[in-house]
């Protein structure tokens, strides 16, 4: 059974944000604050005001530097539902103030195909075609734990339905993800380009986990880059 993908859904309504944050405080759930070096601290909430600022008890100790203008990410859960937001933490002797910026609901979706933004570096490099060594670099268009769509120049390879491909997926500067699958769909995009639909027929658990983790990180990069 394939893992669910994590899909970021932005929460824009101010009243909805306020209600959600009040539920967080009332629930007694903690907030995990994380910096760009992936260091984290756990915070206990004290209250929230109408400016979407959460007051938290100060941690006993932290190696984080909150003096600069770098943004931090913070996450919390309410009844199994996970949320993520950006913040500039302000620390004093009695509390930490987290102003909530760009709040997202992290939703789990089965068989969801995430469309890769056109300006994001994403490649599908075919290393074996019907068990013969090759090297064909394709543009990755969308991705799920079940399969993907890719673009390839028509002159690049002689391809047919049900061809077996082994490939490495490169998302940004992350380590490659090894996949294997069958070509289930071929359509002509234009005079020079084909779009292939690949259905994964064998996926190591590690690769499936990497797809889920990489797409979660990718969305975080993209959304926070747009709003930064």
Biggest sheet: strand arrangement: 1-9-6-5-2-3-4-8-7
| Overall 3D shape | elongated
Q: Briefly, what CATH class of the largest domain?
A: Mainly Beta
Order of helices and strands: EHEEEEEEEEEEEEEEEH
Count of structural domains: 2
Provide the residue-averaged pLDDT: 88
Integer-rounded radius of gyration = 21 Å
Helix content: 10-25%
From the coordinates shown, what is the CATH architecture of the largest domain? Beta Barrel
Number of helices: 2
User: In percent, how much strand structure appears in the residues?
Assistant: over 45%
Q: Structural class, from secondary structure content?
A: alpha+beta
Tell me the span between the first and last alpha carbons: 37 Å
* Strand segment count: 16
User: What's the CATH topology label of the largest domain?
Assistant: Thrombin, subunit H
Protein name: PilZ domain-containing protein
InterPro entries: PilZ_domain
GO molecular function: cyclic-di-GMP binding
Pfam families: PilZ
């Amino acid at each position: 059974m394939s893992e669910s993908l994590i899909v970021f859904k932005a929460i824009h309504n101010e009243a909805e944000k306020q209600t959600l944050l009040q539920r967080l405080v009332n629930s007694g759930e903690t907030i995990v604050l994380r910096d760009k070096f992936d260091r984290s601290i756990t915070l206990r909430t004290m209250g929230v005001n109408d400016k979407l600022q959460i007051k938290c008890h100060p941690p006993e100790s932290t190696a984080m530097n909150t003096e600069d203008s770098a943004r931090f990410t913070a996450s919390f859960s309410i009844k199994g539902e996970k949320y993520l937001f950006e913040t500039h933490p302000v620390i004093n002797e009695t509390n930490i103030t987290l102003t909530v910026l760009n709040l997202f609901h992290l939703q789990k979706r089965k068989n969801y195909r995430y469309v890769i933004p056109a300006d994001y570096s994403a490649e599908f490099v075919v290393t074996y075609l019907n068990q013969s060594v090759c090297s064909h670099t394709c543009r990755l268009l969308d991705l799920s734990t079940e399969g993907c769509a890719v673009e390839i120049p028509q002159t690049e390879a002689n391809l047919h339905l049900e061809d077996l491909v082994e490939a490495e997926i490169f998302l940004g500067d992350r380590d490659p993800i090894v996949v294997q699958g069958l070509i289930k769909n071929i359509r002509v995009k234009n005079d020079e380009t084909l779009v292939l639909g690949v259905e994964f027929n064998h996926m190591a658990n590690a690769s499936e986990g990497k797809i889920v983790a990489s797409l979660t990180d990718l969305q975080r990069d993209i959304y926070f880059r747009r709003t930064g």
